[in-house]
Amino acid sequence: MIAMLGLTLSINYANFIIKKQFTENLKALIPVVTVVIVMALLDYLQIFGITSWFGNLLNLIFIYPYLALVPLAILISLFYWNRKNLETRFYLDGTLQERSRGVDTNEFLWTRKFGDLAPYLQQDLKMLWRNKRPKATLYLSLLFLGYGLIFYPNEAYHDTPKHS
User: How far apart are CA 6 and CA 73, in angstroms?
Assistant: First the structure.
C-alpha cells in the first residue's frame, strides 16, 4: 500500500514538473511524446511488453517488502524538486518579463456599413481578435466549415440517397 501511494504521488509530482518544463518550451515535449508513442506501439505490437515489465516490478515489491522504500525515495525527491521549482517562481514579479508588443489598431472599418450596430460589432471583433481562445475557436469553426469540401467533390458520395 505504501508503494502504491508513493507511486501515485510520484506521478502527481512528476506531472507538475513536466507541465512546468514544457509550458515554457513546447518543442522540448516532442521527444517525450515520441518516446511514449514508441513505447505504447511496442507494447501494442507485443515487441516489448512495458506493462508486463512494470507488473513484474510491482510483484517484486510483494516478494521483497523493503523495496517499497524505492517509490518513497522517488516521491521525496520529486517533492523537493517540485518545491524548489515553486519557491523560485513564487513571486509574481520574478516571472514577469519585460516584453514590448506592438498594439494592433485594426479598426474594422468595413463594419461601418452596418450603421448604428457598427461600434458594437467593431468592439466584439476586437475582443475576438485579441484573445487566444475565441480566436482559436473562430479558426476551428472556419476549418470545420470547409470539412464538407473533402467529401462533396468525391464521386463516391454523389450516388448516395438523399434524406429529407
Answer: 8
Which residues lie closer than 8 Å to 103 by C-beta, 6 or more apart? none
| pTM exceeds 0.90 | no
Q: How many helices (H) and strands (E) does the chain have?
A: 8, 0
d(CA 138, CA 142): 6
Rounded distance between C-alpha atoms, residue 88 and residue 81, angstroms? 11
pLDDT in tens, 68-79: 999 999 999 999
Long-range Cβ pairs for the range 56-64 (8 Å, 24+):
58/3, 61/3
Calculate the average pLDDT of the chain: 83
- The C-alpha cell at 141 is 469553426
Looking at this protein, which amino acid is placed at residue 100? Answer: S
Average pLDDT over residues 16-38: 83
